[in-house]
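Bumping my old thread because nobody answered last time. Still need a sequence for this structure:
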C-alpha cells in the first residue's frame, strides 16, 4: 500500500477517546497531499452513543488532531455528516485543531422526526466559519424539504471558499444576492457553484422561470471569473 493516497473511514473506527488510533496512522497521513475522509453518523455521536455497544460513543481528542496538524501540514481532511440534525451533536465530532478542508452535511429524508428549523444550519455554518474559515475550501449541504437557509450568509462568513454545493429550498431574492456578491468579487477564490433548487409542485412553473432568468443573468460573469456555474431544479 505504498501508493495509497486516500483513506476513507467511519469516524468511530479511529475514535478511541485517547487519540492513539489516529496517531498510529501518522506514517500514512504524512504522505504528500494525502486525503483522509471521515464519515460521521447519527448513531455514532461521541458522548451520546453507548460506547459499550462496540461502535460509536468515543471521540478523538484535540491533542491528537494538534499532532496531526503539525506532522501533516498538507493533509486534506474531508468530514461528512450523515443524518445528524442537531447542531450540538455535530459539534461533538469537531475540535479546534482539526485541519478541516472539506465538509458535507447531508440531512436525507426523516420520516419520524419533526424537521428542525434553520437555526441548526445557521449555527453550523457560523461555527465552521469561525473555527475553520482559513482552511475550508469545499462546503456541501444536502437538505430535504428543510427550512429555508440564506445562502448569502455562507459567502459572507467564508469568503475563502473554493467550492459551494447546495441542494434544498431557497428564496429567489437570496439567490440573486448570493450571485451579486460573487459577481462583486467577494468570494475571490471561488471556482464552483452548484445549486439545485427543491420546489413544491405548486411552484414548479415559478421556479423554472426564475432559474432560467438567473442563469441568463449571471452565466457571463461566472464565465468571466472562470467559475463552474450550475443552477437547476433538483430532480429526486
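Sorry it took so long. Here it is:
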Amino acid at each position: 500500500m505504498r501508493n495509497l493516497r486516500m483513506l476513507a473511514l467511519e469516524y468511530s473506527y479511529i475514535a478511541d477517546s485517547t487519540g492513539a488510533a489516529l496517531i498510529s496512522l501518522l506514517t500514512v497521513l504524512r504522505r504528500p497531499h494525502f486525503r483522509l475522509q471521515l464519515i460521521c453518523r447519527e448513531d455514532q455521536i461521541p458522548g451520546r452513543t453507548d460506547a459499550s455497544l462496540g461502535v460509536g460513543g468515543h471521540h478523538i481528542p484535540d491533542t491528537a488532531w494538534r499532532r496531526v496538524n503539525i506532522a501533516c501540514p498538507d493533509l486534506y481532511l474531508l468530514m461528512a455528516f450523515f443524518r445528524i440534525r442537531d447542531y450540538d451533536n455535530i459539534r461533538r465530532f469537531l475540535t479546534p485543531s482539526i485541519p478541516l478542508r472539506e465538509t458535507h452535511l447531508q440531512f436525507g429524508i426523516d420520516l419520524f422526526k419533526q424537521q428542525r428549523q434553520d437555526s441548526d444550519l445557521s449555527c453550523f455554518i457560523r461555527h465552521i466559519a469561525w473555527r475553520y474559515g482559513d482552511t475550508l475550501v469545499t462546503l456541501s449541504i444536502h437538505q430535504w424539504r428543510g427550512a429555508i437557509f440564506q445562502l448569502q450568509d455562507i459567502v459572507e462568513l467564508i469568503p475563502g471558499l473554493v467550492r459551494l454545493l447546495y441542494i434544498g429550498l431557497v428564496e429567489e431574492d437570496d439567490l440573486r444576492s448570493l450571485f451579486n456578491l460573487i459577481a462583486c468579487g467577494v468570494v475571490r477564490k471561488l471556482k464552483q457553484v452548484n445549486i439545485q433548487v427543491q420546489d413544491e409542485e405548486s411552484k414548479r412553473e415559478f421556479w423554472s422561470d426564475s432559474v432560467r432568468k438567473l442563469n441568463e443573468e449571471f452565466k457571463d460573469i461566472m464565465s468571466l471569473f472562470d467559475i463552474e456555474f450550475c443552477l437547476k431544479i433538483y430532480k429526486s
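The first helix runs from residue 11 to 14. Let me know if any region looks off to you.
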